[in-house]
């Protein structure tokens, strides 16, 4: 122990003696650079190689999943299958991007249970990892929007009132003022937005699934999208100021409650009042029976 | 009257010092002369039935509307001037809105009880019109609109129309996304009126839509013009009710010339007063617990925006439904477009409907030729054609209602909005016809059943076994009150023309109209079942008595049951001709 401390002291003393020499600065710099470079050479390329290998693995795994679960409609290479009438049995997926996969599969819309006018939201069939692999495969078919980073759709970062204005201008016409959903022609519909995750809202805006138009980043900037998400989250968490909202479906449910609850209860009271009339009549009635 | 003298009490009459209340009453009477009028009306008799209280719901809702409406006017700013919202509702802070919208938000979030008052006002408006509609159906189904009450029926229809307009103007005031969409729609409706539409629009809006005068103008109409008219017509409606006296159901002792019931004071004053508090209470509970027209969620009106599920309030729902299912017909000539697709469903159809409603009493009295006064009500089954007409109208209304909510129905039940539209385009024509036929036949079979009960008694549920082993059910005569009520109706008289041509073969003037009338009268009454004649009743009772004697011995063994099915004493039934 003493030997060790003596050696270090001597070494340090030697270094210290040379520290004011002319070449000391460049020498230290050289050493530092070599050290950094060496470390980089040691770790970085290897890491990049693993990532590349992982990506390739993801694509391969995604392709395997795709061939089993998706290819029957979208084609073995995601090229789509056309029907005799020229419609799509399943549309081509070249260029739709990982974001589209993450939305469609992540909300359970894909794989489709059967041919319907619109893919309904249902139980998710794939794990997060599998969805990521499928996304990687579809992304490899052609460049498309990637899955957004979590800060892009962080509702705490957006401006609620600005998001409300954007929402009313672009979204309420189909999705209803409270995001309760609305009908579209031919049995299609705009689904409700109240229980959709922020990531999926961002992806839906980006990729325009089903009947929805694409709101690309040129039309609604990522900041705009985040504002809309903030507004929708506020919409979910807002206190019910006026009481029970009756589905926030507008005047139809209000009218139904006016008739069934309002008129129903009041007519009930009218019957009750008319049945409980002045005593004299009751006595006569009772006497007759 | 300076001394209170008791004459009818159990104690001996003696003079007392006048009470303070009597002093005040005397003071008022000697200046206003109310005692004479009050004496008569304070004891005014009203009959008792739950269905007579439906109009009262409307009346009391109107009182709630006046009370809550006055509260709202204290803060509402009927202005389309632009302002930046800054108030308690965070998500709209910093947004450009109209003063009307900002003040509505202020009432909702910053005025104590403001939101409650807004919601009560809106619920009361819906109940007001709904109660008027239900009351109208009751009056029609029971024939209470017949002479001398036809004009009161017309006033009632006017009240319904004015109530609807009042509701629409109120819906448009807060200037939220929904109300603005409603005004935009109204703008389109007016524009669809041929020739004058565009001019009327510019007159209404003071220029191009939306301008800055429509909300102040609607406000004046909403708080001054229509409430004034409503109040005047409600007063007329009530005065006529007092003048005509209330109708009553037929029954022992109740005739066309009397009213059997309880006096205004104390019974009906207490009942009606109590009912006001019930209506107020129900409205307050609905206002407190059910969110209506959440304007903060709709956002401010912007002509570029619209929301899915944009609907008018329910009372405008049926013309809106007609508009939704109307095929897109348009004509173009001389550089002019005629929008049949808007004009027919939203201008022509409601106008026609109001006209038909107003004409109903007059059409019926012309067809039936019945010009007598009627103070006794008819059961719906005893006027099968009339009942059928109203059910057909209700079906018509209901189907258009469904059309008005087609998008909500589509999304709620997972249907195609196109399929609903195609179905309703046929159903609105076929449905009322089917409803009419079913209702009319249903009424007639109920009439038959009444006759059965009159002639053969009601089914007791007691099964008798005779000596040969056969089974039969024992029938008992109806209790006399019930038998009276069933048979206290007039025989229908089909209008018949004596002879349309005289002995020289010359057609009598107006005989073509008479022929139509005779045919309609035949259609109106022809299939009705008439009540049994006195002779038929007598014979049936005679037969039943014989039967009674036969079965008496058989019943001797079951004394306890025998006691229960004792036939009541037969009293005189109303005269059967």
Automatic annotation (TrEMBL), chain A:
<keyword id="KW-0677">Repeat</keyword>
<keyword id="KW-1278">Translocase</keyword>
<keyword id="KW-0679">Respiratory chain</keyword>
<feature type="transmembrane region" description="Helical">
    <location>
        <begin position="256"/>
        <end position="275"/>
    </location>
</feature>
<keyword id="KW-0249">Electron transport</keyword>
<keyword id="KW-0408">Iron</keyword>
<keyword id="KW-0812">Transmembrane</keyword>
<dbReference type="Pfam" id="PF00034">
    <property type="entry name" value="Cytochrom_C"/>
</dbReference>
<feature type="binding site" description="covalent">
    <location>
        <position position="171"/>
    </location>
    <ligand>
        <name>heme c 2</name>
    </ligand>
</feature>
<comment type="subunit">
    <text>The cytochrome bc1 complex is composed of a cytochrome b (QcrB), the Rieske iron-sulfur protein (QcrA) and a diheme cytochrome c (QcrC) subunit.</text>
</comment>
<dbReference type="GO" id="GO:0005506">
    <property type="term" value="F:iron ion binding"/>
</dbReference>
<dbReference type="InterPro" id="IPR036909">
    <property type="entry name" value="Cyt_c-like_dom_sf"/>
</dbReference>
<keyword id="KW-0472">Membrane</keyword>
<dbReference type="GO" id="GO:0020037">
    <property type="term" value="F:heme binding"/>
</dbReference>
<feature type="binding site" description="covalent">
    <location>
        <position position="174"/>
    </location>
    <ligand>
        <name>heme c 2</name>
    </ligand>
</feature>
<protein>
    <recommendedName>
        <fullName>Cytochrome bc1 complex cytochrome c subunit</fullName>
        <ecNumber>7.1.1.8</ecNumber>
    </recommendedName>
</protein>
<dbReference type="InterPro" id="IPR009056">
    <property type="entry name" value="Cyt_c-like_dom"/>
</dbReference>
<keyword id="KW-0479">Metal-binding</keyword>
<feature type="domain" description="Cytochrome c">
    <location>
        <begin position="57"/>
        <end position="142"/>
    </location>
</feature>
<dbReference type="GO" id="GO:0008121">
    <property type="term" value="F:quinol-cytochrome-c reductase activity"/>
</dbReference>
<dbReference type="GO" id="GO:0005886">
    <property type="term" value="C:plasma membrane"/>
</dbReference>
<feature type="binding site" description="axial binding residue">
    <location>
        <position position="175"/>
    </location>
    <ligand>
        <name>heme c 2</name>
    </ligand>
</feature>
UniProtKB/TrEMBL annotation, chain B:
<keyword id="KW-1133">Transmembrane helix</keyword>
<feature type="transmembrane region" description="Helical">
    <location>
        <begin position="274"/>
        <end position="296"/>
    </location>
</feature>
<dbReference type="InterPro" id="IPR027387">
    <property type="entry name" value="Cytb/b6-like_sf"/>
</dbReference>
<feature type="transmembrane region" description="Helical">
    <location>
        <begin position="57"/>
        <end position="76"/>
    </location>
</feature>
<keyword id="KW-0813">Transport</keyword>
<feature type="transmembrane region" description="Helical">
    <location>
        <begin position="122"/>
        <end position="141"/>
    </location>
</feature>
<keyword id="KW-0408">Iron</keyword>
<feature type="region of interest" description="Disordered">
    <location>
        <begin position="529"/>
        <end position="577"/>
    </location>
</feature>
<dbReference type="Pfam" id="PF13631">
    <property type="entry name" value="Cytochrom_B_N_2"/>
</dbReference>
<dbReference type="GO" id="GO:0005886">
    <property type="term" value="C:plasma membrane"/>
</dbReference>
<keyword id="KW-0349">Heme</keyword>
<feature type="transmembrane region" description="Helical">
    <location>
        <begin position="383"/>
        <end position="402"/>
    </location>
</feature>
<feature type="domain" description="Cytochrome b/b6 N-terminal region profile">
    <location>
        <begin position="24"/>
        <end position="250"/>
    </location>
</feature>
<dbReference type="GO" id="GO:0008121">
    <property type="term" value="F:quinol-cytochrome-c reductase activity"/>
</dbReference>
<feature type="transmembrane region" description="Helical">
    <location>
        <begin position="342"/>
        <end position="363"/>
    </location>
</feature>
<dbReference type="GO" id="GO:0016491">
    <property type="term" value="F:oxidoreductase activity"/>
</dbReference>
<feature type="transmembrane region" description="Helical">
    <location>
        <begin position="153"/>
        <end position="173"/>
    </location>
</feature>
<dbReference type="GO" id="GO:0046872">
    <property type="term" value="F:metal ion binding"/>
</dbReference>
<keyword id="KW-0812">Transmembrane</keyword>
<keyword id="KW-1003">Cell membrane</keyword>
<keyword id="KW-0472">Membrane</keyword>
<feature type="transmembrane region" description="Helical">
    <location>
        <begin position="185"/>
        <end position="207"/>
    </location>
</feature>
């Amino acid at each position: 122990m003493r030997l060790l401390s003596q050696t270090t002291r001597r070494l340090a003393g030697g270094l210290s003696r040379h520290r004011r020499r002319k070449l000391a600065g460049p020498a230290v710099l050289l050493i530092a650079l070599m050290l950094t470079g060496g470390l980089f050479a040691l770790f970085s390329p290897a890491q990049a190689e693993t990532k590349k290998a992982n990506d390739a693995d993801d694509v391969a795994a995604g392709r395997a999943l795709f061939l089993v679960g998706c290819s029957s409609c979208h084609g073995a290479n995601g090229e789509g299958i056309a029907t005799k009438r020229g419609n799509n049995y399943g549309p081509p997926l070249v260029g739709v991007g990982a974001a589209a996969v993450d939305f469609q599969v992540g909300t359970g819309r894909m794989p489709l249970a059967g041919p319907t006018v619109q893919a309904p939201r249902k139980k998710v069939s794939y794990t997060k990892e599998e969805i990521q692999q499928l996304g990687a495969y579809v992304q490899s078919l052609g460049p498309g929007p990637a899955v957004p980073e979590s800060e892009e759709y962080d509702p705490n970062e957006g401006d609620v009132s600005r998001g409300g204005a954007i929402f009313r201008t672009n979204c309420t016409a189909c999705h209803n003022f409270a995001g309760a959903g609305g009908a579209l022609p031919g049995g299609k519909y705009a689904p409700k937005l109240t229980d959709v995750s922020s990531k999926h809202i961002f992806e839906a805006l980006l990729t325009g699934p089903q009947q929805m138009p694409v709101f690309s980043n040129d039309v609604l900037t990522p900041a705009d999208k985040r504002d809309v998400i903030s507004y929708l989250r506020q919409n979910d968490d807002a206190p019910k100021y006026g009481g029970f909202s009756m589905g926030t479906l507008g005047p139809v449910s209000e009218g139904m409650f006016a008739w069934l609850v309002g008129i129903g209860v009041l007519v009930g009271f009218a019957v009750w009042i008319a049945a409980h009339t002045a005593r004299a009549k009751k006595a006569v009635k009772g006497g007759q029976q | 009257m300076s001394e209170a003298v008791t004459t009818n009490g159990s104690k001996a009459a003696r003079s007392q010092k006048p009470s303070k209340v009597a002093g005040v009453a005397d003071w008022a009477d000697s200046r206003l002369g109310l005692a004479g009028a009050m004496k008569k009306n304070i004891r005014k008799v009203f009959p008792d039935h739950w269905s007579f209280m439906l109009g009262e719901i409307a009346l009391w809702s109107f009182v709630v509307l006046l009370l809550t409406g006055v509260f709202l006017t204290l803060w509402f700013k009927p202005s389309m001037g632009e302002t930046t919202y800054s108030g308690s509702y965070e998500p709209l802070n910093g947004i450009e809105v109209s003063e009307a919208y900002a003040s509505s938000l202020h009432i909702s979030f910053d005025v104590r009880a403001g939101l409650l008052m807004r919601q009560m006002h809106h619920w009361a408006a819906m109940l007001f019109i709904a109660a008027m509609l239900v009351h109208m159906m009751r009056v029609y189904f029971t024939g209470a609109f017949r002479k001398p009450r036809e004009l009161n029926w017309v006033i009632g229809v006017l009240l319904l129309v004015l109530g609807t307009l009042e509701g629409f103007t109120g819906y448009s005031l807060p200037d939220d996304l929904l109300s603005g969409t409603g005004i935009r729609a109204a703008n389109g409706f007016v524009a669809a009126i041929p020739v004058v539409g565009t001019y009327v629009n510019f007159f209404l809006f003071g220029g191009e839509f939306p301008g800055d005068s429509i909300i102040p103008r609607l406000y004046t109409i909403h708080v001054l013009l229509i409430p004034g008219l409503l109040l005047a017509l409600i007063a007329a409606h009530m005065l006529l009710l007092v003048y005509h006296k209330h109708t009553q159901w037929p029954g022992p002792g109740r005739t066309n010339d009397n009213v059997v019931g309880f006096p205004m004071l104390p019974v009906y004053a207490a009942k009606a007063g109590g009912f006001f508090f019930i209506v107020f209470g129900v409205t307050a509970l609905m206002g407190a617990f059910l969110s209506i027209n959440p304007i903060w969620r709709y956002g401010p009106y912007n002509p570029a925006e619209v929301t899915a599920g944009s609907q008018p309030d329910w009372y405008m729902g049926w013309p809106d439904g007609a508009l939704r299912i109307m095929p897109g017909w348009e004509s173009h000539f001389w550089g002019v477009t005629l929008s049949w697709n808007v004009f027919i469903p939203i201008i022509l159809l409601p106008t026609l409907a109001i006209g038909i409603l107003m004409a109903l009493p007059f059409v019926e009295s012309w067809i039936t030729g019945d010009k007598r006064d009627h103070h006794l009500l008819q059961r719906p089954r005893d006027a099968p054609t009339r009942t059928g007409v109203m059910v057909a109208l209700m079906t018509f209304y209901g189907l258009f209602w469904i059309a008005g909510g087609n998008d909500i129905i589509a999304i709620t039940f997972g249907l195609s909005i196109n399929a609903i539209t195609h179905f309703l385009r046929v159903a609105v024509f076929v449905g009322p016809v089917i409803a009419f036929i079913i209702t009319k036949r249903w009424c007639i079979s109920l009439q038959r059943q009444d006759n059965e009960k009159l002639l053969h008694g009601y089914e007791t549920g007691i099964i008798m076994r005779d000596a040969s082993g056969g089974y039969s059910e024992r029938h008992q005569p109806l209790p006399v009150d019930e038998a009276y009520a069933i048979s206290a109706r007039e025989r229908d008289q089909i209008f018949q023309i004596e002879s349309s041509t005289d002995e020289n073969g010359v057609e009598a003037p107006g005989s073509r109209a008479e022929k139509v009338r005779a045919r309609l009268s035949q259609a109106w009454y022809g299939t009705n079942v008439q009540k049994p004649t006195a002779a038929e009743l007598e014979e049936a009772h005679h037969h039943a008595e014989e039967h009674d004697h036969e079965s008496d011995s058989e019943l001797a063994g079951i004394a306890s049951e025998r006691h229960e099915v004792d036939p009541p004493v037969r009293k005189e039934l109303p005269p059967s001709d």
